[in-house]
Structure formats: structure tokens, C-alpha cells
Design goal:
It is found in: Vacuole membrane. The protein has 120 residues and is of the alpha/beta class. The chain contains six helices and four strands, in the order H-E-H-E-H-E-H-H-E-H. The chain is globular. 23% of the residues are buried.
Length: 120
């Protein structure tokens, strides 16, 4: 029974992305700040340290209220070893394109795992 309750409280989408991606998703209504003043999004620009991106990624993957974690693919590339190590079902990790960086399936860790499962 404990495993069935593990996903019940997960009702947020978290995002690590560039300003345009975050702005669009916030306008769509995904923004949330909890009682500890923790946000479910991180705006990454050229000045954002890789350590901050990685720490936020680890925080979001450990939070029990996040169901889906979206990350711009070009930002995921900055922390690729950490992203590739992530194997949990919840929160589900999805790499998304951004306005300036198109999606590249050859870099998507989830797609690579699926292809490996099917022997492609």
C-alpha cells in the first residue's frame, strides 16, 4: 500500500529552463511556491552556475510533491552525467526543446534508454 500512496501527493510540474520556456509555462499556470518559500521552477541564463542547476535538479527529483520535471535539453547537457544517472519513475523527467535550441533525440537520455530496451 505504501507504494500506491507514493504518487498520490505528487501534483506539481517543476521546470528547469531558459527564461522564455519558464515564462510560457508560468503563464500556463504551473508556477507554485510552497510554505517553505520553495519554487517549482528555476530560470537558467548564461550566468547561472552549473552547481546551482545540478543542486536544483537534485532537489526537484527528491521532492515528494513533484510529478513531472521538465528540463530544457540544452540545460540538461550541462549536467548530463547527473541526468543520465537519474532512473526513478517519479518525478518523471522530460527533456524539452527551447526557442533557440531545437530538440535533438540523440541527446535525450530517456529516448536512449527506450531504444536500449527495444534493442535499437
Amino acid at each position: 500500500m505504501a507504494s500506491s500512496t507514493s504518487f498520490k501527493d505528487r501534483n506539481l510540474i517543476a521546470v528547469i529552463g531558459d527564461e522564455d520556456s519558464i515564462t510560457g509555462l508560468l503563464l500556463a499556470g504551473i508556477g507554485h511556491v510552497n510554505e517553505q518559500q520553495k519554487k517549482n521552477f528555476l530560470v537558467v541564463d548564461s550566468k547561472t552556475p552549473v552547481a546551482t542547476i545540478e543542486a536544483t535538479f537534485l532537489e526537484y527529483t527528491e521532492r515528494k510533491d513533484i510529478a513531472i520535471l521538465l528540463i530544457n535539453q540544452h540545460i540538461a547537457e550541462k549536467i548530463r552525467p547527473t541526468v543520465d544517472k537519474y532512473q526513478q519513475a517519479f518525478p518523471t523527467l522530460l527533456e524539452i526543446p527551447s526557442k533557440d535550441h531545437p530538440y535533438d533525440p540523440s541527446k535525450d537520455s530517456i529516448l536512449k534508454r527506450v531504444q536500449k530496451l527495444f534493442g535499437e
